Amino acid sequence: MDEKSLLGFLRSAASAYVSRFTRFLDPAEVGELKQAARAYKLSVTIWGGYPDAERCLAAVGGDSAPKPEDFPLTVLESTYNSRFASITHRDVLGAYMALGLTRDCIGDIIIKNGVIYLFTVDTMSDFISESLTSAGRVSLSFHRVRDMSRIPPPEGIYFRGTVSSLRLDAVLAEGFRISRTEAAELIRAGRVKLNYLPVLRTDAPVSEGAMLSLSGHGRVSLRSIDGLTKKQRIGITFFRFQ
Fold first, then answer.
1. I need a surface site. Which of 1, 66, 116, 190 has the fewest CB within 10 A?
2. How many CA atoms lie within 13 A of 131 on its CB side?
3. With contact defined as beta carbons under 8 Å apart, do 56 and 108 qualify?
4. What is the secondary structure of 113-134 as a DSSP string?
5. What gap in Å lies between CA 40 and CA 29, rounded to an integer?
6. What does pTM read for this prediction?
7. What domains, with CATH codes, occur in the chain?
């Protein structure tokens, strides 16, 4: 969403009695929306179809925060035989983009145990179901998911660590099991993102819930700050995405 569209959307939301919904936003766009919405004293609620979704719809304004079922979001699924065919996130996204649709019409794509889950805006779900019939060399047949509890959570592992401070270089080093010196070098080289935005400051503060990504090494989320240890270090819990 460019700046002109964002301001127009916020002005419209400020004069409405019910929430206005965006299309799918990436985490950086969600951050920009929340910052801009504060100037209009508007609330922002996000939902991507499941907890920890990366791409989300945002509901702005309104007298009350919408529930997950109020969001104009549909989940589509298609099965395939994973024993005889392989398919990747890139395959599905490429096949979708070949339909001539924009990226903001779909959210996350989850592929697990021979099932593809595709999150989309309500208005495009029928078209995608009818048109997205293959990806790579795999034939697909999408239909609507009725039982949302079937959607699998993100795969990964929890692990704990300790840091001397919540500076980016310290947290990055602990999260990716590297030295603090190496972490600082990677930050200055532009290979690190904090909450999906590039950051070059080694002393940038990291808060609970922050997402850290290191080019070539994946992502970790700082799930909780657990207080001081006996050695007066800060205990933290990470989630590493797989």
1. 190
2. 12
3. no
4. TTEEEEEEEHHHHHHHHHH--E
5. 17
6. 0.75
7. 3-70 (3.30.1370.160), 73-150 (3.30.70.330), 156-241 (3.10.290.10)
